[in-house]
Amino acid sequence: MLEFYQQLAKTLTNSVAVLATVTSTKGSTPREVGAKMFISADGKAVGTIGGGAGEAKVYQQALQLLKTGKKQFVEIDLSGVPQRETQGVCGGTMQVLLELWSGSESLNLANQIIDALTSGHSAAIITPFNTDEKTYLIEETEVIASLQGTALIEPLLPPPKLLIIGGGHIAISLVQISKIAGFQVIVQDDRSDFATQERFPDASLVLAEPITSIQEILNKNSNLYVALVTRGYLQDLAALRLLSNYQLSYIGMIGSNKRVNTVYKILQAEGCKTDFLNQIYAPIGLDIGALTPEEIAVSICAELIKVRRGGTGNSLSRE
Questions:
Q1: Are 217 and 166 in contact (CB under 8 A)?
Q2: DSSP code at position 158
Q3: 233 pLDDT above the threshold of 90
Q4: Each residue of 12-37: pLDDT tens digit?
Q5: What one-character-per-residue DSSP string does 249-306 give?
Q6: C-alpha closest to that of 163 among 184, 142, 147
Q7: What is the mean pLDDT of residues 98-113?
Q8: Which of 36, 18, 34 lies closest to 72 in space, CA to CA?
């Protein structure tokens, strides 16, 4: 969401855009309530509300709205009924709200949303269903209940952070993939020739410092995921001794079963609690037969998404 609004703000500095937001769904649909895309004056689309015929219809309507400026709803029927204009077969329906964003007022709102996302302050985007009212930001989230049913309410949550410990080959691909998946990424490695911004251009922070340097990150971030892709079990031990003092959203550790068991035995001998060890995903990642560093990074990111979204990790064809 942060990157989306950053691109929207960049567009609004010298142009206008139509923001398309999924406000309700019924049945099986390709995207969820709150999914967004925007279409700029030159016809460029950023984001997606699901692709296919439904998105194409919204895109065409957005081009018309660029001329009229009139806020409107578009209903997308993906049930596959032959007489329907939109030939989708997902099985459900979506309602999408189109709204023109232009001028300093819209740019200020986009920047306020960006500030809220980066600062972590409690706020929410309020998109009124009344076509005569404009979208706005609210900071007093305790009064949101009174808006139920009259507007789409989107709490602003900062992107989840992923701390990657270890700067080897797997980390390079993992940074790239996890950023695409919506994580804000931090990399730590005590080797200065491995932990560089040039090596990890997509990371928000690169620490070429001892493992103790992560303590400030651990203290400040509640929604933190940690992936240990270190060069050896000694580095794993040093990291896990620190991590054991914190409540984290996810801890994954790379390595063979032998390496993992060695780490566990040493930590247990030092008095580490079994409850903590049971939280660790090790060996890290989903079993997709990954062999190359790039494939392993995909398997790790898949597990991160599974934990974040509450998935099963099963093949959808088996569901």
A1: no
A2: P
A3: yes
A4: 999 999 999 999 999 989 999 999 99
A5: SEEEE-S-HHHHHHHHHHHHHTT--HHHHHTEESS-S--S---SHHHHHHHHHHHHHH
A6: 184
A7: 96
A8: 18
